Amino acid sequence: LTPISTFSDADIFVAGYPKSGNTWFQYLLVGLYWGLDPIVAPDPLIQELVTDVHYKKYYLRLATPMIFKTHYLPRPEYKRVVYLVRDGRDVMVSYFHHLTALHGSEVDFMTMVRDGQDLFPCKWHEHVGAWLKNPYKAEILLLQYESLQQNPAQELMRLCDFMHIQRDREFIDHVISQADFSKMKRKEEQNPSFRLNKKWAAGKSFIRRGAVGSYRDEMPPEILNAFLGQAGEALALLQYV
């Protein structure tokens, strides 16, 4: 076992703000890099193969590079990074439902967005700004959740180039089909241990909607305006507005 603070310079860190499609991407990586069917693979095994740095004190170094999932801001030890980014408006909607399920009661959406209450590790636009500045000069591949949804094969081929691995198109298409959103939801329904947090409210799904543009029918105008007032520049940099 290796302490979670000990890495190789060759390791790859999938950095993304919470609720940016991180779990789906973790499933894609289990198929793409390790060749496993993520719908069949038990979740503890998935956590060993694409290790979440927030839930492990130690990990098994099964290969080099290893792949890690993180929500942290840039760190000097993160030298090769896939930055997974999603439209912050959709992220806030998903985070609102996430916190509601975690607390067992509805949170104040406006306070969450305006003041950053219960948001980890910071506000969305602060996370985006930090990673786009890339203060430690990491080698970074930026992947947008929306592009992964619209053209997953093309984006995964870009990922293969970044990771220096070769996978043919038939293999990639199979990985995409096995990490299908509906299959992930079904796996969660059949396997309660899917969720790492035991405080999660009964009857609430971790894999919820995953839709692009969900903020349009789930984010009240006054909350949207409050978010745009803070995050408008970051949204424009990423061409979301």
Question: Biggest sheet, strands in spatial order?
Answer: 3-5-2-6-7
Main sheet record = 5 strands, parallel
Query: Tell me, what's the shape?
Result: globular
Distance between the termini: 45 Å
Mean pLDDT: 91
Poorly predicted parts? none
Fraction of helical residues: 40-55%
Give the structural class. alpha/beta
Strand content: 5-15%
Tally of DSSP helical segments:
11
Number of strands: 7
Order of helices and strands: EEHHEEEEHHHEHHHHHH
The value of Rg in angstroms is 17 Å
Structural write-up:
This protein has 241 residues and is of the alpha/beta class. The protein is 46% helix and 12% strand. The chain has helices spanning 22-34, 43-49, 88-103, 109-115, 124-133, 145-150, 152-163, 169-178, 181-190, 215-218, 221-237, and strands spanning 2-3, 12-16, 50-52, 58-59, 67-70, 80-85, 139-144. A five-stranded parallel beta sheet has the order 3-5-2-6-7, with helices on both faces. Strands 1-4 form a two-stranded antiparallel ribbon. Helix 4 (109-115) packs parallel to helix 11, helix 5 (124-133) packs parallel to helix 11 (221-237) and helix 7 packs across helix 8 (169-178).
